[in-house]
């Protein structure tokens, strides 16, 4: 079925003046924007010389927490791996050598390149074994370096405890984790 003649609308190109054809108004507008930016307040952070101040609820690199006896806190329940929308957590459970739990993670691997840092693993964990820290300068030269195994995740815990940069989510408020800012 052909398109009816009255349904077709022809568009005429706009008429340009001599100034428009020389692009003078566009050049003046561009120079005006440049001058505005020259006198605007500077917000660029000179990283790495000047470290940015991250908000208290920033979600960065993962860590596996330790319990009071410096053992891995994880009980290998697979809740974090189940809740993860990116499917970046891989756990292999083994019978626990300690009498206070049934299992522990023999291997615990997080693919940091695949992770979307949503915090679902942290919310799903019943024993608060996994947390997202405020560390943001995560680099690696290969994909293998970005696969954080249990030892690397526990070393992130040791580093954050040593520097005193525990995540704010470790201190729960009345409304739940991270509901109240530290005083």
Structural key phrases:
5 helices; alpha+beta; 7 strands; 183 residues; Alpha-Beta Plaits; three-stranded antiparallel β-sheet; two-stranded antiparallel sheet; elongated
Would you write up a description of this structure?
It is a single chain. This protein is α+β, with helices and mostly antiparallel strands and 183 residues long. It contains five helices and seven strands, in the order ααβαββαββαββ. The protein has a domain of 108 residues: Alpha-Beta Plaits, CATH 3.30.70. A hairpin with a 7-residue loop joins strand 2 and strand 3. The protein is elongated and about 85 Å long.
Helix content: 10-25%
SS element count, helices: 5
Order of helices and strands: HHEHEEHEEHEE
CATH class of the domain at 62-169: Alpha Beta
Output mean pLDDT: 88
By secondary-structure content and strand pairing, the structural class works out as alpha+beta
From the alpha-carbon coordinates, what is the Rg to the nearest angstrom? Answer: 27 Å
Q: Span between N and C termini?
A: 73 Å
Strand order in the sheet with the most strands: 2-3-5
Could you say what the CATH topology of the domain at 62-169 is called? Alpha-Beta Plaits
Summarize the structure.
The protein is an alpha+beta fold. The protein has five helices and seven strands, in the order H-H-E-H-E-E-H-E-E-H-E-E. A three-stranded antiparallel β-sheet has the order 2-3-5. The chain has a two-stranded antiparallel ribbon with strand order 1-4. It has a two-stranded antiparallel sheet with strand order 6-7.
């Amino acid at each position: 079925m052909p398109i009816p003649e009255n349904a077709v609308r022809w568009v005429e190109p706009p008429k340009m003046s001599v100034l428009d054809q020389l692009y003078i108004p566009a050049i003046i507008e561009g120079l005006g924007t440049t001058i505005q930016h020259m006198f605007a307040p500077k917000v660029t952070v000179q990283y790495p010389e000047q470290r940015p101040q991250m908000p208290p609820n920033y979600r960065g690199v993962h860590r596996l927490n330790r319990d009071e006896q410096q053992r891995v806190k994880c009980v290998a329940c697979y809740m974090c791996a189940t809740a993860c929308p990116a499917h970046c957590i891989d756990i292999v459970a083994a019978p626990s050598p300690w009498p206070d739990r049934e299992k522990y993670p023999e291997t615990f691997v997080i693919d940091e390149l695949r992770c979307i840092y949503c915090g679902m693993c942290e919310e799903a964990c019943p024993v608060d074994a996994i947390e997202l820290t405020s560390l943001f300068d995560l680099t690696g030269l290969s994909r293998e370096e970005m696969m954080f195994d249990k030892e690397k995740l526990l070393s992130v815990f040791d580093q954050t405890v040593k520097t005193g940069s525990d995540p704010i989510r470790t201190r729960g408020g009345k409304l739940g984790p991270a509901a109240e800012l530290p005083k």
